[in-house]
């Protein structure tokens, strides 16, 4: 199954960290959408090495910040999903998207219903039609349950018949 054409998505990228990043990659794989993104040297993530099954490009530096900037620059738009205010790398992602004049949507899941979240993201994607979408958000250790939340949200956005939000 491919993402519906009306969303314009041809590739989903992320930095491979646990939580929101990994959820986006898993949704891409599940839907048959090409995926990728940049990761720090050594394929580092908070749970150890990012599994080889993810088609990610290892950078020459170990910096999470450099990886974040590379993904923002490689994408046509960035979606940041959080549960509350942005902190750490998620806040940096928003700053970098603005710095590089890239479309960015921060969706705070605690501020809207699941149905509103899906509608907001769909409308934003339809208005921008990014071929490459960068998905970011907190890691699992700082936002327990964010992986499942983002996974279910993205599945509902890309496949309206799923209704898993």
Strand and helix layout:
Layout: E1 11-13, H1 20-31, E2 35-36, E3 38-39, E4 44-45, E5 48-49, E6 57-58, H2 64-74, E7 77-82, H3 88-99, E8 104-108, H4 114-128, E9 132-136, H5 146-158
Parallel strand pairs: 1-2, 1-9, 3-6, 7-8, 7-9
Antiparallel strand pairs: 4-5
Helix pairs in contact: 1-5, 2-3, 4-5
Identify the overall geometry: globular
Largest sheet: 5 strands, parallel
Count of the separate structural domains: 1
The level 1 CATH classification is Alpha Beta
Order of adjacent strands in the largest pleated sheet: 2-1-9-7-8
* CATH topology value: Rossmann fold
Strand runs, count: 9
CATH architecture identity: 3-Layer(aba) Sandwich
Q: Indicate the low-confidence ranges by residue numbers.
A: none
Rounded mean pLDDT score: 92
Structural class: alpha/beta
Radius of gyration: 14 Å
Which key terms come to mind for this protein?
165 residues, globular, alpha/beta, two-stranded parallel ribbon, 5 helices, Rossmann fold
Describe this structure as you would to a colleague.
The chain is of the alpha/beta class. The protein has one domain: Rossmann fold, CATH 3.40.50.450. The chain is built from 5 helices and 9 strands, in the order βαβββββαβαβαβα. The chain has helices at 20-31, 64-74, 88-99, 114-128, 146-158; strands at 11-13, 35-36, 38-39, 44-45, 48-49, 57-58, 77-82, 104-108, 132-136. Strands 2-1-9-7-8 form a 5-stranded parallel sheet, with helices on both faces. Helix 3 (88-99) links the parallel strand 7 and strand 8 (104-108). The radius of gyration is 14 Å and the shape is globular. The two termini are 19 Å apart.
């Amino acid at each position: 199954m491919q993402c519906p054409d009306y969303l314009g998505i041809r590739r989903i990228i992320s930095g491979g960290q646990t939580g929101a990043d990994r959820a986006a990659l898993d949704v891409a794989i599940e839907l048959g959408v090409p995926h990728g993104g940049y990761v720090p040297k050594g394929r580092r993530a908070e749970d150890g090495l990012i599994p080889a099954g993810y088609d990610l490009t290892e950078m020459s530096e170990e910096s999470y910040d450099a990886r974040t900037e590379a993904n923002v620059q490689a994408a046509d738009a960035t979606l940041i999903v959080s549960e509350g205010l942005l902190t750490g790398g998620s806040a940096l992602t928003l700053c970098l998207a603005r710095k590089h004049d890239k479309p960015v949507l921060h969706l705070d899941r605690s501020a809207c219903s699941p149905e509103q979240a899906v509608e907001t993201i769909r409308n934003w994607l339809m208005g921008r039609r990014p071929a490459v979408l960068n998905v970011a958000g907190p890691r699992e250790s700082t936002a327990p349950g964010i992986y499942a939340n983002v996974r279910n949200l993205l599945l509902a956005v890309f496949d309206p018949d799923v209704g898993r939000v």
